Predict the 3D structure of the following.
Amino acid sequence: MCGIIGYIGSRKAANILWDGLKRLEYRGYDSAGICTINNNHILIEKDVGKLEEIQNKINFNSMNGNVGISHCRWATHGKVTKENAHPHCDNNNKISIVHNGIIENFQELKERLIKKGHKFKSMTDTEVVVHLIADNYNGSIEEATRKALKQIDGSYALGIVCANEPDKLIAARNESPLIVGLGEGENFIASDVPAILKHTNKVIYLDNNEMAVLTKDNVTIKNNNGEIIHKKIAEIDWDSELAEKAGYRHFMLKEIHEQPRAITETLNGRIENGNINLANELNLNEGELKRINRIIIVACGTSWHAALAGEFMLEELAKIPVEVEYASEFRYRNPIVNEDTLVIAISQSGETADTLAAIREAKKKNANVLSIVNAKGSSISREADSVLYTYAGPEIGVASTKAFTTQLIVLYLFTLYMSNIRNSLNKETIRDLIGKLRKLPLEMETLLTEDKGIKKIADIYKDKNNALFLGRGINFPIALEGALKLKEVSYIHAEGYPAAEMKHGPIALIDKNMPVVVLATKDVYTYKKVLGNIQEVKARGGIVIAIATEGDEEIRKIADYVFYIPRTLYILSSILSVVPLQLLAYYAATDRNLDPDKPRNLSKSVTVE
Ligand code: M6R
């Protein structure tokens, strides 16, 4: 949604904040700003645009002070203007805040405050918070914040500073992520770990209705009644270099190339003597797992596509009925769930508001909830009964890539684990499937190192406005994911369809301007039918880009372009097939001079409903 970073210590705050914002820009990039306190005065600089544009207009380096807050915005209430950019300030220029979330009763509060003489400068919901704090200020910023929070309905992660108390930085959280970073003689707050990883790997995850009072040498966490809470300090094992571009032009390209490593890390420690072992990570014993008679998977966006692939895996191999739901719809249609239902929630960020709400709905109905999450310690990982982490490392590019493939890996591991427990596959078959799985990172590495001409294929999209992606079976969610990637980063209208559905409508769109990606890897069920679908596209003049299995010469004769992937199990081939689609989207965007890391209107983590 938006990114927040705050600092208190002995170093120049503005430099640390600006550097941190660059690492949080994936959360919001329509405007940004910094506030520092210098000699008991509040200094604020902010403007609209991406950070690199703002940097050309403002010299943040000239802002002195050792305490400050900063923000990169993704607009919800109020247009993208300088006035609406954060930080916001009270009328006396004494208190400043940054905010992520939505204040639902802001209109009512604003009217009340205006009557009391407060003057508003922006159209944001956020500004009411700073006025409300000022209204309650009586010498203690901590106390004033606590009083103000009691009057607020909605979600917030807040960073607050006060010119009269320059030795304090206040943070507060409800329903929007916020962490506290613990340094030596300095402390931080941030929306997400990458912003502070360079300075510390010790963090405290704030929970709902908690406040943190930071000084340079101390951090105290309190509840909204001011009572001290003792929280666990987590040590983050992400390497700070993973949050840098490492020579790649964009995070998206770097993250596509990181997939073999991310998959290896996700497999690490989970395969033992030719078997999958997830027992230590699951809060369900074998008896409980046997009793599950239905699985519902909830997720949004790319994670929802992973869920569809998971449905295919679990039904095909573990023989358990699975339904996939958009997390945003789940709680609004009274789903039938009971104690024998396992609800799996998939999320890269672990903070997606809709997915979090779906978990709460499922728990209310006594389902057991398993989450598949990338961000350690995130809200979803904490609220679920069990968590299986994907070890993709920090994903900065807004378009999800390595998170998706590692989600597929975890779903596959879970499928094999369940298949063993429920005896739907024999031990020998499982051993064989695991053997093929182990080879996957190397196969993907080869795919990424050899130049297979995907950049040239992407040139086709230069002057196109529409695109289709077709796939069957487990390749249908891959087609959806290919279409989503292209839409997100190149703004080309794209649709994914089950290949056979094409003739029920979308075929009307096909002409010589329509590139159609067809996922045509070999399987026992649908390969021949997919060849038929390719013929149907060709007969109408469409351009066919086939993703095919190495050695398939037949397909060369009918497709315009073929991208080969190594021969492996059908299910695993889908994990390889998505890689050329990610690259296609990346190059289609860069060919159009678009920045794939910061697609318009999008934010990495959608923490509002
Ligand atoms: O963090 P989550 O996996 O819960 O996020 C879900 C979606 O918002 C996310 O996958 C989104 O669709 C991405 N932009 C896809 O590239």
